[in-house]
Amino acid sequence: MPSYEPRGPYGAKEVGEGSMVPVLGSIANAIYDAIGVRMTELPITPQKILKALEVKNSESG
Description:
With 61 residues, this protein is mostly helical. It has helices at residues 21-35, 46-60. The longest helix has 15 residues, at 21-35.
């Protein structure tokens, strides 16, 4: 079913959000590469990173 977005050029939708999708995965992978903790929930906050590190450290020893 076609739809029309009056605010987009030529009725286009999603002008910039699609280009952000790979960025979030890249940031999560960079965090994993740096500290060895996989972040699977957004938003990635400093508090979530610290909590994940605490869990990792308690599991390893």
